[in-house]
Specification:
Helices cover about 55% and strands about 0% of the residues. The protein is an all-alpha fold.
């Protein structure tokens, strides 16, 4: 039986053969102290932004929601 390392290697090789490539994405740490407070702070800034409503309406208009509801 193949080792875990070998199975992962084979799996990744198959994905590459299918035309895919790995991508690493760094995102904020949601467990970090202060994360929720920072989200709230930024949300309140957007709430007062005069362009926010226009932006949200545009996003709703152009979003492809087929199959998501």
């Amino acid at each position: 039986m193949a080792s875990t390392v070998e199975r992962v290697r084979q799996h990744r090789a198959g994905l590459r053969k299918a035309g895919l490539r790995p991508v690493q994405i760094w995102v904020p740490d949601t467990k970090k102290p202060g994360f929720a407070e920072e989200c709230r702070r930024q949300s309140l800034l957007l709430k007062a932004d005069p362009h926010e409503r226009e932006t949200l309406e545009w996003l709703e208009k152009v979003a492809d929601q087929e199959g998501w509801t």
